[in-house]
Each structure stands twice: as structure tokens, then as C-alpha cells.
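Honest question from a wet-lab person: if I give you the sequences of every part of a complex, can you actually get the arrangement of the whole thing, not just the pieces? Trying it with mine:
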Amino acid sequence: MRQVAVHDGSGISRPPRSSARALAAEARAGLPWVVLVVPVAFIVLLPIARLELKAFEDGGAAFTRAASLPGIGRVVLTTVWLALGSASIALVLGTGLAWCSTLLPRRLRALTSSLPVLPIVIPAVAAITGWAFLLSPTVGYLNQLLRRLPVFDHLDRGPIDVFSVPWIIILTGISLTALVYLFLQSGLRAIPADLQSAAAVSGAGSGRVFLTVTLPLLRPSLAYAAGVALVLGLGQFTAPLLLGRNQGVEVLSTRIYRLVGQYPIDYGVGAALGSPILLAGLAIVVAQRLAIGDQRRFVVATSKAGAAGDDARWWAAAAIWSYALVAAVLPILALVYVSVSPFWNGQLTLQGLTLDHIRTTLSADQVRSALANSIWASLLAIAILIPVGFLCALAMLKWTGAPRWVQVILDLLVSLPLAVPAAMMGFGMLFAYTRPPLELYGTNYILIVAYVTLMLPYSTRLQTAGLMAIGRESYEASAASGAGPIRTVTRVLLPQTRRSAATAAALTFVLLFHEFSASLMVRSVRTQVMGTVVLDTWTSGIYPQVAALSLLMAAVTFLGVVTALWVGGSDALRRL
Amino acid sequence: MLRTRRQHLVQPRRTAPLLAGALALAMGLSGCGGDDDPPSAVDQTPPSSATGAVSPSSIPDPTPGPSESTAEDPSSSAPDTGWNEILEAARQEGQVVVYSGDNPAANDRLAAGFAEAYPDISIEIIRGVQYEPMLDQERESGADGADLYIVTTQAWFAERAAEGALLAPVGPHAADWPSEYLVDGAVVQGSINPFVIAYNTDQVPNPPVGFADLLDPQYSGQLASSSVVASVVAGWYDWLETSSPGYIKALAAQQPSFYEGSVPVAQAVAAGEHAIGVFAFPGSVQPLVDEGAGIDYVVPDPTVGTVSNIAALGWAHRPNAALVFLDWVMSPEGQQAWNGVGVTASPLEGIPGELEVANLEILDLLPWTAERMEDFTAEWGSSLGG
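Yes, you can. This is the full assembly:
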């Protein structure tokens, strides 16, 4: 950070223009930042760059091979449907729930408005196994209940077939809803309440207020949420992987995963298959940026916002409770029941229940080592992520005076993992890290590198929010008082960001513990994490043990979320 | 896939396998790449002192050692002869890791039986379907992985044997092992499994008697089968198609659901999710029967069988322990543990409790190389679960 600056009244230091020496000075000033930029560039770019190079080897022969895979057209179509369908469902449901949260009675507001976030607490792989027990066509518990209704009682299977494309899309959409809701909640809180009150006073019903006043103001949040939902929907991996096998439903990411099950792995074809997802993800992120401009503008919430609270509707609370029940409570209940059953069967009976499977699961050596791996790898990754994320956040803030080129490059690098689906990233890492210079296969280090790469955007974003909340006044006051940059950071900024760093750590831990797609790509038989053990048990093992494992995952995550809330306050989750 | 592991009290120390080099000659081992090559050939004669079962040492050598994170080069010490030296080295290795495609109940029996016979060698059996790519990856990267592999696949073993990358069994029980159940001098065929048809006893009062019955309209939408995840599945579908041309298409027309292997098929049938499990083995069904689930199986007429092959891997990090486990599996006690509960048959005569499988035709899975699997999947994949 430089001492020389030109102040043009905007409060932002700019370099003196039109001087080659000044440009050189700026380049030199950026040199310390190179220490940050180079490693970040390395871990973010290496997997994807090497993979894409592989795809284009031999004049793109891999693309030809990929295009001639049997049934690939149907796979691509299913991928597109999954992305569009799940994103649409998530946007509609998420917006609806966000609207309901504005209509909550004041007494219920605090608890009820956090309920839609509950599904995030449950790892996707755990939730999907719960849904399978609920919605298996013949013996799924919910299906059996539905068949008692007069309209369905003539059926002996269904009516819901969880192993079909529509329901894979619906379940993915339901789980993405929580994320969309989270983003919209942040946006809602930034909207001044007086606008909505004015509309209501002028005679508009609550629906019209929402459609004509609130929703347009939410456009930035909606655009952001839509972008995230689309990218996540494109790379969706867990639901198609667990539920698709029964009827041969495949998407691009699961097709790439199947390549990992052959030796030698045809990385070229995998890269070719993943290129459309990669391009689409990049396009979405770019479009998102263009639509809402610098998203950092929307991070700071200063107005007294939110609904006035007079306009409470009981059905709004009922809607939110129903969503929480369906999306979170039901799968957990199914998992609990199956985990204490001697074997999976569709009968809800209290006879013969046993703790044997839970006991076997908890004492199994492979489970313990996977649990230890998950926790240890997550903690180590966080130990790297927090400082690196802090430094990146610092660099990208305009008022810390990092040169523009550093800011631009870091911004790009830090956003890139968001645009790449985790499964693709994992596949790229498998390719990059099973050959020189870094051969990490079969060790836990490959997990840690994967986690750091994937979570860099979140760690940076969370800490950017924290730094912006502090505001640049402290920073500039410190600089004005004569403290050098290091001293300013360590004595002034760090103490104030402790809480946001701790929240970031807890939330990142939750996300990492959930992590499934990339872990599945880079794991070896003896370096597993909880999610991959659940999958192995699901595909080739014993269902009550699957249920016990899923519950164990959910329990650890729940502890992580509680810690995050305790450390960061009740608004911690909103910072995501 | 979860298995229990017996702890042992001594810090294992990795020492060079003393006999690995001898075995190398038996297999014509050449360098297989990576740091853990077994030493090159030394002339080897089977230990003349080998008799009966090896009695386990009751007091393990309390030599503490560093916990290993990299493999020690097994070629670093002079090869030696004698089963006792192998045993001693195995105890110092202290652990053996097996990847197994066999069903969880069988793996548990193997683990429990071996732990009882050799309490100072801790055993870890990891269950999964089709581990060949992972094993190849481990071999290439030198990662610490499996010492032995149990699977019905044959082609992969044949390729490794041709490279000289497997360890020949040299224990005392190798001499008594029937030679027709030892392939390429290193692949032990340890268990014989007939294909059966599983059915849910609540939903199917009159079970089918043969695979042909499954094409009956009454079973439409009620079948559970396996997708083509391994050569045993491909070979079995191919046998069905060859015995009865048009079978696969007709089966696909019944709209079965597909799972990965026989264990989830049996679980789904026991749950009542499907009435019939088309791809099934007694070993996957019987544990559910024992739990009181409403499932049973019939041995169809005609049917074929498959064998579970086991071999010790030449690139194993613990080759001596691997040989000890292999020898135990070939012993009457090991065979009793594996095949003594009436769901599989043993290559050895007179194992109490084994399944009677007289005149069972065993599927030849040798031709099912990766290329043939690809062709099969290209032709039939869309009908058989993608």
C-alpha cells in the first residue's frame, strides 16, 4: 500500500496519470501483492486450465469422442432441464417464501423467517437418501400415505416416483429454494419499509404491493439468486447420482463421474463433457455481474428495513412452516426411522426396532476415519482460507490502495470457482494433482487443496462484508496517524474483524463438511469423507447404515451451524 | 461395505517383505513401476517345513516404529525362504487391507475369522463394486491401498498375472489347494456363488422357477436388476441372451429398476419395493432372511454360477501380510469361514455347511476385458439402466 496518492475528492486514491514512471511505480507497488496473487492464481487456474488444454489436444479429438458417447444427447437434454427446472422452482418458491416472511406477525418473525434456511443445515446427500425412503414408488412412506387418499387408492405404486426426472428436478429445486430465500432475505432487509407502507395506504393489497413495489426493488437480489441457482442447477450432482441409477437418468456431471470409474481415466472426454457447463457457468456469472454491477454495493445494509409488521397474515407463517416441514423435517424423520429398523421396509411399525445398525456404523473403522478426515481436512482448509480470504478481501477493497490490476485479477480469480460446478472442479483437480508437479492422489492433501479452491469465494465474500461493515474510516484514521499498512491491519482491522472471521470459519466448516461433488472425484478408497462413505453405502450396502451415516452427517453440520450462530449472532447465516 | 476391524496393540513397523522376491520368480515378476516393486527374482522352493495350519504367535513383538506415510521399498533387504519368516514379517507389518466385491456378510466372516486366527495382524476389508480403476490408480501413484483384491472379475487378474504383478500363494495350504481353482499360478478361486432369483415372500406367493418366467406380464414393473457395473453382470446378461435370444430386450420391456450389484437389489426386494430380484446371490439374500425380512430365493433351472477370485497384489505395501491372509483363505478354517454358512460352495472338499452346487456351470469371465465391456454397454446400456 502506497503512501503517495492523488485525492480527487472521491475519497479514492488514484495514481498520477500519464507518466510512465508512475505506471512503473504502481507496478512496483503491486509487487507485495504478487505473493498473494500467484498462489491464488495457481490453485484456481491449474485444475481448469490443464483440463481444458487436455480437451483440445489433438485438435479437439476428445470432443469428437464425447459427442459419440451413446445416449449423450439425452444426457445433455436432461442436464438443461435440470438446470432450468430446478432454478425456476427455486426462484418461484424462494420468492414466495420471501414474500411470506414480510407478512409474518412480529412475534413469530425471528424464528419463522429463519426456518426456510433449515434445509441448508442438512447435507444434500443425507437429505436425498431421506427423500428416497419417503418417496420410493412402492414402499416410500409418503407414497403409502398418499395411496390412502381416495384419489390415489387404486394405485399400487406411486403416485410419486422419486427416481424419475421430474422428481429429481423438484427435489433439487426444493433444496436450492433455501439458498434463493437467503439471498432474497438480504435484499428485503435493504428495502425501506415506508415504500411498501405508502403503497398499502394507497389501497394496494399485499399481493399488489409485493409485485409492483417490492419485487422490482429486489431485482439485484433476484438476478444474483437466479444466477447462483442456475449455476448450481447446471452442476447438480447429488440428486441425479443417487436417484438416477434406477431408471438410467444421467446428467453431464454424473457422466463425468462415471469416467472416473474406468482406468485409464479419459480426462479429455471428461473435459469435453464439462466444457459446456463451464462455459454456461462463466456466461451466467458474467451476465449476473452486468445485471447488477458491482455486487459489493449491495452488501452493506443500513436502512431500517423490512415489513412494518402490521400487515400480518397467518397463512404466511403456515406456508413457511409447511416448507420447513417438508424440506427438512420429513427427510430427517425418515432417516431416523430407517436407521433404527433391522432392514429397510415400508412398514411403519415400532416392533423390532434396533440400535444395532447405528452401533455398527459409529464403531466402523472406515466411518471413524472418514469422519476424522472430513473434520481434519475442513479445519486445515479453514486455517488456510481465513487468512487468504482476508487478504483477498483487503486487496479488493478500493480504500486499501492495492493497484487496480491486482484488484481486477483477484476479483476474477476469486469469482471463478463460483462459476465452475464443484464436480467439474473436482474432476480437474483429479487430473491436475495425479501428475507432476503436485502428486497428491491417495493423500488428504488433495482434499485440502480442493476445499481451499472451492471455498475461496465464500471466505473472501464473508470477510469483505465484515471489512466493509467496519468501514474505511478506521483504516484511514490509522494511516493518517502514521501507522504503516501492516500495523494498521494487525492492530486496527484484525481485532474488529474477529467476529466476522469466526463466523466465516464456522460457515465454511459447514459448507466443507457438506462437500460431496469434488470430494467424490478426488477421493481414493482409503481417503474418504463422510459424504463419499454415504454414497458408497447407498450404492452397494445396507440401507439402515446409510440412514445412520446421513444422520451423523446432519448432526455434525447442525453443531457447526449452531456454533456459527453463537459466534456470529443470529444474522450470521444471512452473510452467506 | 462396512466392516469391523480388530485392533492390535503393537505399533506396526514396516519392514521389507522377506519372501516377496522369492515369489517374484514364481510369477516371473518384472518391474511394475513405482517405488514398491518387489525385489527381483530369487529361486524359491516351497518351504518343506510347511505343515497344517500356522499357529498364531500369542506375544507380538513390541517393537515400536514410526507410523508409515510412505511405503518402504520392499527390495531393500535380502530375500529369505521359509514360511516362518513370512509370518514374522507379516506380524511386523501388522496390518492387511483387502478390497472386496463380495457381499458384506461374507466380508465380515472373513474379517472375524482371520482376526481370530491372527490377532496380531489387524484386518481391514473395504467393500465396493469394481475397484479395478482405483487399484490401477494406486499402483501408478504408489498410494497406500489394497494388499489383496476379492472380486468375480477375471480379465483384470489375467492381465496383472501376465505382467507378473501378482504374488503366488506360498503358504502351507497352497500344496493342498485343488489346482483347477488356481489360475495363472496366483489367482485363487475361493468361493463359488450360484445365481438365484430373489423374491418378496409377501408379494409373490408362487415364486418363479426359472429366468424365463420373469418375462411373464404379471411381473411387469416389479423387477429389480443390476446395471452393468462389473463384468460379472455383463457376463450374466450375455449368458441369458445366448441361452434365450431376445431375452435382454424382453427383460427391458418389463421396465425393471436398476441397482448397482446384488446387495441393493436384495435390500430393495426385502423392503417390498420390488417383488422380484433378477440379479441375486444367496449370500446377499440370506442375511436378510436371517433378520426376518420377507425375502427368499429360488435356484432357477437352468442357472450358472460365478467364483470369487482373490489374489495378493505385487505392489502391496504389506506383501507378507497379504500372503498370510491368502494362505488362511486357502486353509480349511478360512474356507469354513467363507463358505460354511450355506450360501456359497467351497473348492475344497468336505467343508461343513457349504452349499451344494453339483454340476454348476461357472461363467467364463475371462473374455470380458474393458474393451468388451465397452462394446456391451454401447449395445445394451440403454436397455439395462444406462
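Two things worth pointing out. Residues 442 and 523 of chain A are 7 Å apart (CA to CA). Strands of chain A lie at 6-7, 13-14, 434-435, 438-439.
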